[in-house]
Amino acid sequence: MTRAVLLASHGSIDDLEDLPAFVTNVRRGHAPSSDLLAELRRRYRAAGGSPLNAINAEVARKLQKRLGVPVEWASRLWKPYVRDVLVDLAKRGVDRVALVPLAQHSAAVYAAAARTPAEEVHIELACASNWGQSPRLCRAFADRVLEAMGPPSGCAPTTVVMTAHSLPRSVIDAGDPYEREVRASGATVADEVAGRAKESVVFDVAFQSQGLAGASGPTPWLGPDLPTTLDAVRARGDRRVVFAPIGFLADHVEVLYDLDIEARAMAADRGLSYARARSLNADDDFIEVLAEVSSPLLLGG
Description:
Elements: E1 3-9, H1 19-26, H2 34-47, H3 52-67, E2 71-75, H4 82-91, E3 96-101, H5 107-120, E4 124-127, H6 135-149, E5 158-165, H7 169-173, H8 178-196, E6 201-208, H9 226-235, E7 240-244, H10 253-256, H11 258-269, E8 273-276, H12 284-299
Parallel strand pairs: 1-2, 1-3, 3-4, 5-6, 5-7, 7-8
Helix pairs in contact: 3-12, 4-5, 6-8
């Protein structure tokens, strides 16, 4: 049996000319308005574009070296699509694929997207389940939070705002475990940080990036959102905020714009200092996390 790993992410674009088609995919076939496209173009440009595809390619290269088996990357909503990469792997003689979603709290969505294409090309698919509570992953997030906190400030407690992408409230109400798992991951990261920090730390969980590209009308979204969270931070007298995007694994527009530009401005408006924990990107400790997730899937069969 010839084995390979497929890393699957939400997707991103490298060329703004592809933005209308990409956003249409995100919106499940509903074309975006000209106003929405203009706003998204502004955000991409302000953030300097999205490095996500380049990061995914580097992660795949490093993980392949670490595991000694082929490792490819694909996207659910843009090129290279999961289906196309599975077809290519089958042509290369691969008949078992370990699918690892680069969205640690949403594995079922990625498994569903890959299952039929894998069957069509006679690939045995082994899908990682949600792995957001992996101790090694949570330690990697905590390391970066502590790095961003720096030396003790000696003033009011630091607030660490742990963020993840929001979802429509209806998805959670229908039974999706996403919110529960994000909060459980946040609790583990918080325990790790609190046990090693040399100052008082307050922890909040917030949900960001509500519904811009995916909105199709008035929809309640999972919260609290960033403005609500920062209002609460200011109200209790804290003055120092560290953002920790624990729902995301790599830099992309929703980190580089929504946090580094938009949330930084929100914090400044409320008299709060701003820092942000680095993303995992293609760092060596993250490669070890992925090796730990992938290896059991490769050994089956």
